[in-house]
Write a structure and sequence with these properties.
single chain, 369 residues, alpha/beta, Rossmann fold, 2 domains, 7-stranded parallel beta sheet, 3-stranded parallel beta sheet, 15% strand
């Protein structure tokens, strides 16, 4: 088969890019088509050796974050690609839609959907664009037409894969399409090996892009009130105004470490008291599975994809409201329950989401269609 891989764009390196990286491992000869690539970015460097083909719009939209305000160009960007010579196209789709390209009637299109675009359907987004009234007016007009395109292009897909049951429900609701759940790939065995013999130290851990809707602000406030140490791994993304908030969030109990290597990240996982997953409606959440692979429990908001990975009081604890008070309450509960959570139970749960399982299920799915 002639196979092509498609991805929104290559800039930040997060869960969606880890999925693309694993797809590239399965089909290394398949070219990767994308709206644009920032060469010196984390994602750009991760795919430096791959055959990456950018859209004709790339030289324009990649500069000064123009890809976001000019998102109305998405239909033109994807229609500029002609995949009629390919037997199979696998698209890794999130907020930039990544569908609607030209194919021949025999070409199969599989969409691995990380989520229908959150900004189109009222879900919290990382950049909180609604705070500016001119942007709200502009977005109301543009998003209307993008929702139409999003729905129409979804009907052209041969088969959908959802990254969680949570996203599966969204696909059914917004696209009226059935989908198969294949959870994202996590380097479970590698993390287990890298964290052998590590013991918990006196800090809690967050690993996330430094953006809105991730609960970082609440965590900083709780750290100061409860006098608990929290380390935050990740780099600012999206609008610059949130990155500027870091100065106000820093205090003697909160330490921002920036981006670190996977090897360093695994060490932080293995030495933390517990991992904090605070987003209110996360699509899936790979980092908390990584923390469980390191044998560490998780404190998470009871919502989104988190409910599919944590076994309550066996691998972690939930809190019910996205407030400082609710988070404070679960911190107090963790003092009693946390010590009863066994590292081996956390690792066993994490194995359900391994990279090896992902590869096996993806290959079987492709064969099935």
């Amino acid at each position: 088969m002639k196979i092509a891989l498609v991805h929104d764009y290559l800039r930040e390196y997060g869960g969606a890019e880890r999925v693309l990286e694993t797809l590239h491992e399965i089909w290394p000869e398949a070219p990767i088509y994308t709206a644009f690539r920032i060469e010196n970015s984390a994602a750009g460097q991760a795919f430096a050796d791959a055959n990456v083909i950018e859209s004709p719009f790339a030289p324009f939209i990649k500069h000064k974050n123009l890809y976001s305000p000019l998102r109305f160009l998405a239909p033109l960007i994807w229609k500029s690609f002609d995949f009629s010579k390919f037997d199979l196209v696998i698209t890794s789709a999130s907020w930039y839609i990544s569908r609607g390209f030209r194919v021949n009637p025999k070409t199969k299109v599989i969409c691995y959907c990380h989520t229908p675009p959150r900004y189109l359907y009222g879900y919290p987004t990382s950049i909180e664009w609604q705070r500016y009234w001119p942007v709200r007016v502009y977005a109301t007009i543009v998003n209307h037409f993008l929702r139409m395109y999003d729905f129409q292009s979804a009907q052209e897909v041969t088969a959908f894969i959802a990254n969680s049951k949570n996203v599966q429900e969204r696909i059914r609701k917004f696209y009226r399409r059935d989908s198969t759940v294949i959870y994202p790939p996590v380097e479970v065995e590698k993390i287990i090996e890298a964290t052998k013999g590590l013991s918990p130290e006196n800090y809690f851990l967050i690993a996330s892009r430094i953006v809105g809707a991730k609960g970082i602000e609440q965590a900083a406030e709780v750290a100061k009130k409860a006098k608990v140490r929290i380390k935050v791994i990740g780099e600012p993304s999206g609008l610059k105004w949130f990155g500027g908030k870091l100065a106000n969030l820093k205090n003697e109990y909160v330490e921002f470490l920036g981006r670190v290597s996977d090897r360093e990240l695994y060490q932080y996982y293995g030495k933390c008291k517990a991992f904090l997953a605070l987003a209110t409606n996360e699509d899936f959440g790979m980092t908390l599975v990584e923390a469980m692979a390191a044998g560490r429990p998780v404190i998470a908001f009871r919502g989104g994809g988190y409910r599919e990975t944590i076994v309550e009081e066996k691998t972690g604890l939930f809190f019910n409201k996205p407030t400082v008070e609710s988070l404070m309450r679960v911190f107090r509960e963790f003092g009693e329950v946390g010590e009863k959570i066994k590292p081996e139970d956390c690792r066993e749960q994490a194995r359900k989401f391994s990279k090896e399982r992902f590869k096996k299920e993806m290959i079987e799915f492709v064969r099935s269609i």
